[in-house]
Fold this protein.
Amino acid sequence: MKQFFSKFSRTTWIVIGVLVAAGLAAFIYNSTRGETVSTFQTVKAERGNLVATVGATGSVRARQSAVLVWQTTGIVDAVNVDVGSRVTRDDVMASLSKASLNQSIILAEADLASAKKALDDLLNSDTARAQALIAVRNAEKAYEKAYNWRIQLNGKIDNKDYVWVNGILKVREYKGYASAETIAKADEDLALAEAKLNDARRNYERLNSGTDPAEVAAAEARIAAAQSTLNMAYLITPFDGTVTQAEPAVGDQVTTGAVAFRVDDLSHLLVDVQVSEVDINTLSIGQAATLTFDAILGKEYKGEIVEVGQAGDNIQGVVNFTVTIELTDTDELVKPGMTAAVNIVVQEVKDVILVPNRSVRLVDAERVVFVLVNGVPTQVKVQLGASSDTMSVLVGGDLKEGDEIILNPPSISGSPFGG
Protein backbone atom coordinates (compact mmCIF):
# COMPACT_ATOMS: atom_id res chain seq x y z
CA MET A 1 0.00 0.00 0.00
CA LYS A 2 2.83 2.26 0.91
CA GLN A 3 4.41 1.58 -2.47
CA PHE A 4 1.11 2.49 -4.15
CA PHE A 5 0.91 5.92 -2.52
CA SER A 6 4.59 6.55 -3.15
CA LYS A 7 3.96 6.41 -6.89
CA PHE A 8 2.13 9.85 -6.69
CA SER A 9 4.17 13.01 -6.54
CA ARG A 10 3.64 15.69 -3.93
CA THR A 11 2.08 17.99 -6.50
CA THR A 12 -0.47 15.32 -7.37
CA TRP A 13 -1.50 15.03 -3.76
CA ILE A 14 -1.98 18.78 -3.47
CA VAL A 15 -4.25 18.84 -6.52
CA ILE A 16 -6.31 15.94 -5.17
CA GLY A 17 -6.68 17.73 -1.81
CA VAL A 18 -7.89 20.92 -3.45
CA LEU A 19 -10.48 19.05 -5.51
CA VAL A 20 -11.79 17.19 -2.47
CA ALA A 21 -12.07 20.41 -0.44
CA ALA A 22 -13.91 22.19 -3.25
CA GLY A 23 -16.36 19.34 -3.58
CA LEU A 24 -17.02 19.28 0.14
CA ALA A 25 -17.58 23.03 0.22
CA ALA A 26 -20.04 22.85 -2.66
CA PHE A 27 -21.92 20.08 -0.93
CA ILE A 28 -22.15 22.05 2.34
CA TYR A 29 -23.23 25.23 0.50
CA ASN A 30 -25.99 23.48 -1.42
CA SER A 31 -27.19 21.68 1.68
CA THR A 32 -27.27 24.88 3.72
CA ARG A 33 -29.01 26.84 0.97
CA GLY A 34 -31.70 24.20 0.66
CA GLU A 35 -32.14 24.12 4.41
CA THR A 36 -32.43 27.95 4.57
CA VAL A 37 -35.09 28.04 1.91
CA SER A 38 -36.97 25.21 3.50
CA THR A 39 -36.92 26.78 7.02
CA PHE A 40 -38.75 30.00 6.09
CA GLN A 41 -42.00 30.34 8.07
CA THR A 42 -44.73 32.05 6.09
CA VAL A 43 -48.29 33.26 6.52
CA LYS A 44 -50.65 34.75 3.97
CA ALA A 45 -51.59 38.43 4.09
CA GLU A 46 -55.29 38.20 4.98
CA ARG A 47 -58.11 40.44 6.00
CA GLY A 48 -59.35 40.57 9.58
CA ASN A 49 -60.25 42.78 12.53
CA LEU A 50 -57.75 44.48 14.81
CA VAL A 51 -58.18 45.80 18.33
CA ALA A 52 -55.36 48.15 19.33
CA THR A 53 -54.70 48.25 23.08
CA VAL A 54 -52.40 49.88 25.58
CA GLY A 55 -51.25 47.55 28.34
CA ALA A 56 -50.09 48.34 31.87
CA THR A 57 -50.20 46.99 35.41
CA GLY A 58 -51.33 48.56 38.67
CA SER A 59 -52.74 47.90 42.12
CA VAL A 60 -56.38 47.91 43.15
CA ARG A 61 -57.55 50.58 45.59
CA ALA A 62 -60.91 51.65 46.94
CA ARG A 63 -62.30 55.00 45.83
CA GLN A 64 -62.59 55.92 49.51
CA SER A 65 -60.41 54.46 52.23
CA ALA A 66 -59.87 55.53 55.83
CA VAL A 67 -57.74 54.30 58.72
CA LEU A 68 -59.37 55.13 62.04
CA VAL A 69 -57.19 55.76 65.10
CA TRP A 70 -58.03 56.45 68.74
CA GLN A 71 -58.10 60.14 69.70
CA THR A 72 -57.49 59.58 73.41
CA THR A 73 -56.41 56.96 75.91
CA GLY A 74 -58.78 54.63 77.69
CA ILE A 75 -60.14 51.09 78.01
CA VAL A 76 -62.25 49.65 75.19
CA ASP A 77 -65.80 49.19 76.44
CA ALA A 78 -67.58 47.98 73.27
CA VAL A 79 -66.68 46.80 69.74
CA ASN A 80 -69.63 46.74 67.37
CA VAL A 81 -68.09 45.54 64.07
CA ASP A 82 -65.76 42.87 62.69
CA VAL A 83 -63.74 42.48 59.50
CA GLY A 84 -66.21 42.24 56.63
CA SER A 85 -68.99 44.18 58.40
CA ARG A 86 -70.92 46.63 56.28
CA VAL A 87 -71.11 50.05 57.91
CA THR A 88 -72.89 53.29 57.11
CA ARG A 89 -71.83 56.83 57.79
CA ASP A 90 -71.91 57.91 61.49
CA ASP A 91 -72.14 54.33 62.81
CA VAL A 92 -70.38 53.89 66.18
CA MET A 93 -67.80 51.18 65.59
CA ALA A 94 -66.28 51.08 69.08
CA SER A 95 -66.27 53.09 72.32
CA LEU A 96 -64.21 53.60 75.45
CA SER A 97 -65.34 53.18 79.04
CA LYS A 98 -66.38 56.52 80.58
CA ALA A 99 -64.58 55.69 83.79
CA SER A 100 -61.27 55.46 81.91
CA LEU A 101 -61.60 58.78 80.10
CA ASN A 102 -60.00 62.14 80.76
CA GLN A 103 -62.13 64.47 82.89
CA SER A 104 -62.53 67.01 80.09
CA ILE A 105 -64.18 64.37 77.89
CA ILE A 106 -66.57 63.32 80.66
CA LEU A 107 -67.59 66.95 81.29
CA ALA A 108 -68.13 67.51 77.56
CA GLU A 109 -71.41 65.58 77.85
CA ALA A 110 -72.75 68.16 80.29
CA ASP A 111 -71.42 71.01 78.16
CA LEU A 112 -73.17 69.54 75.13
CA ALA A 113 -76.52 69.36 76.92
CA SER A 114 -76.16 72.94 78.14
CA ALA A 115 -75.22 74.26 74.69
CA LYS A 116 -78.16 72.50 73.06
CA LYS A 117 -80.57 73.96 75.61
CA ALA A 118 -79.17 77.45 75.05
CA LEU A 119 -79.68 77.13 71.30
CA ASP A 120 -83.21 75.84 71.78
CA ASP A 121 -84.04 78.74 74.06
CA LEU A 122 -82.58 81.13 71.57
CA LEU A 123 -84.66 79.74 68.72
CA ASN A 124 -87.91 78.81 70.43
CA SER A 125 -88.25 80.38 73.91
CA ASP A 126 -90.02 83.71 74.75
CA THR A 127 -88.36 83.85 78.15
CA ALA A 128 -85.44 85.98 76.99
CA ARG A 129 -87.76 88.49 75.33
CA ALA A 130 -89.95 88.72 78.44
CA GLN A 131 -86.90 89.19 80.64
CA ALA A 132 -85.61 91.91 78.33
CA LEU A 133 -88.92 93.78 78.63
CA ILE A 134 -88.75 93.61 82.42
CA ALA A 135 -85.18 94.91 82.25
CA VAL A 136 -86.36 97.90 80.20
CA ARG A 137 -89.03 98.77 82.77
CA ASN A 138 -86.59 98.51 85.65
CA ALA A 139 -84.08 100.67 83.79
CA GLU A 140 -86.78 103.30 83.13
CA LYS A 141 -87.64 103.47 86.84
CA ALA A 142 -83.97 103.78 87.79
CA TYR A 143 -83.49 106.56 85.26
CA GLU A 144 -86.63 108.38 86.46
CA LYS A 145 -85.39 108.26 90.05
CA ALA A 146 -81.95 109.56 89.10
CA TYR A 147 -83.48 112.29 86.98
CA ASN A 148 -85.81 113.46 89.76
CA TRP A 149 -82.98 113.59 92.24
CA ARG A 150 -80.84 115.64 89.87
CA ILE A 151 -83.72 118.09 89.30
CA GLN A 152 -84.10 118.53 93.02
CA LEU A 153 -80.49 119.69 93.21
CA ASN A 154 -80.91 122.45 90.60
CA GLY A 155 -81.74 125.10 93.23
CA LYS A 156 -84.72 127.34 93.75
CA ILE A 157 -87.28 127.94 91.03
CA ASP A 158 -89.71 130.42 92.57
CA ASN A 159 -89.15 128.59 95.82
CA LYS A 160 -90.51 125.48 94.23
CA ASP A 161 -89.07 122.33 92.54
CA TYR A 162 -90.47 120.59 89.50
CA VAL A 163 -90.17 116.80 89.67
CA TRP A 164 -91.45 113.86 87.68
CA VAL A 165 -93.72 111.45 89.52
CA ASN A 166 -95.07 108.47 87.55
CA GLY A 167 -94.60 110.39 84.33
CA ILE A 168 -96.29 113.57 85.62
CA LEU A 169 -94.39 116.81 86.34
CA LYS A 170 -95.26 118.01 89.84
CA VAL A 171 -94.19 120.88 92.05
CA ARG A 172 -92.47 120.47 95.40
CA GLU A 173 -91.21 122.89 97.99
CA TYR A 174 -87.42 123.17 98.01
CA LYS A 175 -85.46 123.95 101.12
CA GLY A 176 -81.75 124.52 101.28
CA TYR A 177 -78.93 124.24 98.76
CA ALA A 178 -76.88 121.17 97.49
CA SER A 179 -73.08 120.98 97.53
CA ALA A 180 -70.96 120.69 94.36
CA GLU A 181 -69.95 117.12 95.23
CA THR A 182 -73.57 116.07 95.64
CA ILE A 183 -74.49 117.55 92.26
CA ALA A 184 -71.50 115.84 90.56
CA LYS A 185 -72.47 112.48 92.05
CA ALA A 186 -76.08 112.97 90.91
CA ASP A 187 -74.86 113.74 87.38
CA GLU A 188 -72.83 110.50 87.31
CA ASP A 189 -75.76 108.44 88.56
CA LEU A 190 -78.06 109.98 85.96
CA ALA A 191 -75.60 109.25 83.12
CA LEU A 192 -75.21 105.64 84.23
CA ALA A 193 -78.96 105.16 84.51
CA GLU A 194 -79.43 106.59 81.02
CA ALA A 195 -76.77 104.25 79.56
CA LYS A 196 -78.37 101.20 81.21
CA LEU A 197 -81.77 102.23 79.92
CA ASN A 198 -80.46 102.55 76.36
CA ASP A 199 -78.78 99.13 76.58
CA ALA A 200 -81.95 97.52 77.88
CA ARG A 201 -84.04 99.06 75.12
CA ARG A 202 -81.58 97.91 72.40
CA ASN A 203 -81.53 94.38 73.79
CA TYR A 204 -85.30 94.23 73.86
CA GLU A 205 -85.62 95.57 70.30
CA ARG A 206 -83.10 92.96 69.08
CA LEU A 207 -84.97 90.09 70.73
CA ASN A 208 -88.34 91.43 69.68
CA SER A 209 -87.29 91.65 66.02
CA GLY A 210 -86.07 88.02 65.86
CA THR A 211 -83.14 85.77 66.74
CA ASP A 212 -79.68 87.27 66.28
CA PRO A 213 -77.75 85.17 63.67
CA ALA A 214 -74.49 85.86 65.49
CA GLU A 215 -75.84 84.39 68.71
CA VAL A 216 -77.19 81.37 66.85
CA ALA A 217 -73.78 80.81 65.24
CA ALA A 218 -72.06 81.11 68.61
CA ALA A 219 -74.46 78.59 70.18
CA GLU A 220 -73.95 76.15 67.32
CA ALA A 221 -70.17 76.50 67.66
CA ARG A 222 -70.40 75.63 71.37
CA ILE A 223 -72.43 72.53 70.48
CA ALA A 224 -69.90 71.47 67.83
CA ALA A 225 -66.98 71.95 70.22
CA ALA A 226 -68.62 69.89 72.97
CA GLN A 227 -69.63 67.15 70.51
CA SER A 228 -66.10 66.98 69.08
CA THR A 229 -64.63 66.52 72.54
CA LEU A 230 -67.22 63.89 73.45
CA ASN A 231 -66.58 61.99 70.18
CA MET A 232 -63.00 61.34 71.23
CA ALA A 233 -64.40 58.42 73.23
CA TYR A 234 -65.88 56.83 70.09
CA LEU A 235 -64.79 55.62 66.65
CA ILE A 236 -67.37 56.70 64.09
CA THR A 237 -67.65 55.59 60.45
CA PRO A 238 -66.80 58.50 58.08
CA PHE A 239 -68.63 57.02 55.03
CA ASP A 240 -70.53 53.96 53.82
CA GLY A 241 -68.18 51.02 53.33
CA THR A 242 -66.81 47.71 54.54
CA VAL A 243 -64.53 47.06 57.51
CA THR A 244 -61.30 45.61 56.04
CA GLN A 245 -59.18 45.72 59.21
CA ALA A 246 -60.21 45.53 62.86
CA GLU A 247 -57.75 45.69 65.75
CA PRO A 248 -59.52 46.45 69.08
CA ALA A 249 -61.07 43.99 71.52
CA VAL A 250 -63.14 44.69 74.62
CA GLY A 251 -60.88 45.37 77.58
CA ASP A 252 -57.89 46.60 75.55
CA GLN A 253 -55.97 49.55 76.95
CA VAL A 254 -55.49 51.93 73.99
CA THR A 255 -53.43 55.07 73.53
CA THR A 256 -53.79 58.16 71.37
CA GLY A 257 -52.92 57.40 67.73
CA ALA A 258 -53.31 53.62 67.99
CA VAL A 259 -54.81 52.10 64.83
CA ALA A 260 -58.26 50.61 65.34
CA PHE A 261 -60.06 50.03 62.02
CA ARG A 262 -59.73 50.44 58.28
CA VAL A 263 -62.83 51.10 56.19
CA ASP A 264 -62.96 50.83 52.36
CA ASP A 265 -65.71 51.56 49.88
CA LEU A 266 -65.54 48.24 48.02
CA SER A 267 -68.45 49.17 45.76
CA HIS A 268 -66.10 51.41 43.77
CA LEU A 269 -62.69 49.87 43.05
CA LEU A 270 -60.02 51.68 41.05
CA VAL A 271 -56.71 50.73 39.46
CA ASP A 272 -53.99 53.33 38.87
CA VAL A 273 -51.58 52.48 36.03
CA GLN A 274 -48.60 54.26 34.52
CA VAL A 275 -48.86 54.89 30.76
CA SER A 276 -45.96 56.01 28.57
CA GLU A 277 -46.00 59.46 27.01
CA VAL A 278 -46.01 57.70 23.64
CA ASP A 279 -49.49 56.30 24.31
CA ILE A 280 -51.09 58.89 26.60
CA ASN A 281 -52.72 60.93 23.81
CA THR A 282 -54.58 57.86 22.57
CA LEU A 283 -56.44 57.59 25.90
CA SER A 284 -59.52 59.46 27.07
CA ILE A 285 -62.15 59.23 29.80
CA GLY A 286 -64.79 56.59 29.09
CA GLN A 287 -62.61 54.22 27.06
CA ALA A 288 -63.14 50.53 27.81
CA ALA A 289 -60.56 48.33 29.48
CA THR A 290 -60.18 44.68 30.46
CA LEU A 291 -58.50 43.57 33.67
CA THR A 292 -57.06 40.26 34.80
CA PHE A 293 -55.56 39.26 38.15
CA ASP A 294 -52.90 36.72 39.02
CA ALA A 295 -54.92 35.99 42.16
CA ILE A 296 -58.12 35.28 40.18
CA LEU A 297 -57.48 32.67 37.52
CA GLY A 298 -59.63 32.23 34.44
CA LYS A 299 -61.71 35.37 34.92
CA GLU A 300 -61.63 38.70 33.08
CA TYR A 301 -63.16 41.92 34.42
CA LYS A 302 -64.37 45.03 32.65
CA GLY A 303 -63.59 48.63 33.43
CA GLU A 304 -63.42 52.12 31.99
CA ILE A 305 -61.11 55.10 32.28
CA VAL A 306 -62.34 57.66 34.82
CA GLU A 307 -59.26 59.90 34.98
CA VAL A 308 -56.32 60.69 32.71
CA GLY A 309 -53.35 62.48 34.25
CA GLN A 310 -52.42 65.79 32.68
CA ALA A 311 -48.88 65.99 34.06
CA GLY A 312 -46.21 63.36 33.57
CA ASP A 313 -43.63 62.04 36.02
CA ASN A 314 -40.06 61.76 34.80
CA ILE A 315 -38.38 58.78 36.42
CA GLN A 316 -34.87 57.95 35.21
CA GLY A 317 -35.53 59.61 31.87
CA VAL A 318 -38.85 57.83 31.24
CA VAL A 319 -42.00 59.98 31.28
CA ASN A 320 -45.20 58.27 32.44
CA PHE A 321 -48.71 59.53 33.11
CA THR A 322 -51.13 58.16 35.73
CA VAL A 323 -54.38 56.77 34.32
CA THR A 324 -57.19 55.58 36.61
CA ILE A 325 -59.56 52.76 35.63
CA GLU A 326 -62.73 51.90 37.57
CA LEU A 327 -63.97 48.30 37.57
CA THR A 328 -67.55 48.13 36.32
CA ASP A 329 -68.30 44.49 37.20
CA THR A 330 -66.35 43.97 40.41
CA ASP A 331 -67.20 41.19 42.87
CA GLU A 332 -66.08 39.93 46.27
CA LEU A 333 -63.01 38.24 44.75
CA VAL A 334 -61.35 41.56 43.90
CA LYS A 335 -59.67 43.14 46.93
CA PRO A 336 -57.67 46.32 47.52
CA GLY A 337 -53.95 45.75 47.04
CA MET A 338 -54.26 43.08 44.32
CA THR A 339 -52.14 43.50 41.19
CA ALA A 340 -54.10 43.91 37.96
CA ALA A 341 -52.99 43.58 34.33
CA VAL A 342 -54.90 46.21 32.35
CA ASN A 343 -55.52 46.40 28.61
CA ILE A 344 -57.16 49.58 27.36
CA VAL A 345 -58.85 49.48 23.96
CA VAL A 346 -57.68 52.57 22.05
CA GLN A 347 -58.86 51.66 18.53
CA GLU A 348 -60.85 48.95 16.77
CA VAL A 349 -60.80 48.48 12.97
CA LYS A 350 -62.58 45.85 10.88
CA ASP A 351 -62.04 44.16 7.50
CA VAL A 352 -58.46 45.29 6.93
CA ILE A 353 -55.30 43.53 5.70
CA LEU A 354 -53.21 42.57 8.71
CA VAL A 355 -49.43 42.25 8.84
CA PRO A 356 -47.70 40.29 11.62
CA ASN A 357 -45.42 42.61 13.59
CA ARG A 358 -42.68 39.97 13.77
CA SER A 359 -42.33 40.03 9.97
CA VAL A 360 -41.66 43.75 9.66
CA ARG A 361 -38.11 45.07 9.25
CA LEU A 362 -36.63 48.55 8.96
CA VAL A 363 -34.38 48.90 5.89
CA ASP A 364 -32.97 52.26 4.82
CA ALA A 365 -35.43 54.06 7.14
CA GLU A 366 -38.40 52.30 5.46
CA ARG A 367 -40.55 49.50 6.76
CA VAL A 368 -40.53 46.37 4.66
CA VAL A 369 -41.62 42.76 4.78
CA PHE A 370 -40.27 39.84 2.78
CA VAL A 371 -42.61 37.70 0.72
CA LEU A 372 -41.78 34.35 -0.80
CA VAL A 373 -41.93 34.52 -4.61
CA ASN A 374 -41.08 31.26 -6.42
CA GLY A 375 -39.13 30.16 -3.36
CA VAL A 376 -37.06 33.36 -3.25
CA PRO A 377 -37.40 36.01 -0.45
CA THR A 378 -38.43 39.31 -2.04
CA GLN A 379 -38.43 42.66 -0.23
CA VAL A 380 -41.74 44.62 -0.27
CA LYS A 381 -42.33 48.11 1.14
CA VAL A 382 -45.28 48.56 3.52
CA GLN A 383 -47.03 51.44 5.29
CA LEU A 384 -48.64 50.53 8.59
CA GLY A 385 -51.42 52.07 10.66
CA ALA A 386 -52.90 50.99 13.99
CA SER A 387 -51.14 48.17 15.79
CA SER A 388 -51.81 45.63 18.52
CA ASP A 389 -49.25 43.50 20.30
CA THR A 390 -49.04 41.07 17.38
CA MET A 391 -50.54 42.66 14.25
CA SER A 392 -50.58 45.95 12.34
CA VAL A 393 -52.99 47.36 9.76
CA LEU A 394 -51.66 47.69 6.20
CA VAL A 395 -52.51 51.17 4.89
CA GLY A 396 -50.19 51.36 1.89
CA GLY A 397 -47.24 49.85 0.02
CA ASP A 398 -46.70 46.98 -2.42
CA LEU A 399 -48.00 44.10 -0.29
CA LYS A 400 -51.15 42.46 -1.62
CA GLU A 401 -53.76 40.28 -0.05
CA GLY A 402 -52.74 36.63 -0.36
CA ASP A 403 -48.97 37.26 -0.53
CA GLU A 404 -46.87 34.77 1.43
CA ILE A 405 -45.28 36.89 4.20
CA ILE A 406 -42.05 35.48 5.66
CA LEU A 407 -42.21 35.52 9.45
CA ASN A 408 -38.48 34.84 9.86
CA PRO A 409 -36.91 36.87 7.05
CA PRO A 410 -33.15 36.82 6.32
CA SER A 411 -31.12 38.50 9.06
CA ILE A 412 -29.35 40.70 6.51
CA SER A 413 -32.61 42.51 5.80
CA GLY A 414 -32.37 45.02 8.68
CA SER A 415 -33.53 45.53 12.22
CA PRO A 416 -36.87 44.23 13.50
CA PHE A 417 -40.21 46.04 13.47
CA GLY A 418 -39.76 49.75 14.04
CA GLY A 419 -36.02 49.49 14.67
